[in-house]
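Hey,
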Amino acid sequence: MSDTSPSGGPEAPGSNPDFDAMTRDIAEVPAVEVIVTVAVNLMSAAAVKLGLTEEGDKYKDLDEARKLIHALAGLLDASTTEISSFHAAPLRDGLKSLQLAFREASLVPDEPGQGPGEKYTGPVFG
């Protein structure tokens, strides 16, 4: 749990988060929105670990990027029937872009079908 209150501000020292309020808040969020939010967070984190941000190589870590891309692919594969193509199509496009960026960033590229997430998506080619 973070040190922030449900409103996003810092917790006062010694106070307990209002778990009932947080539960009510999350109960109001549709499942599709939760899935898409998690997917976007995984995509953003993977982009950072691939060095695709303004900071470039400062946070580049291909091992971490591989894990994040694989998790994203698994989430999208598992949720295919749960989210509409309206939501899924851009997420799949983003995943493919990350997989291609990973392949380009690797000194020794994986064999087709062996890259991050390709267990779920099949081989990714440019």
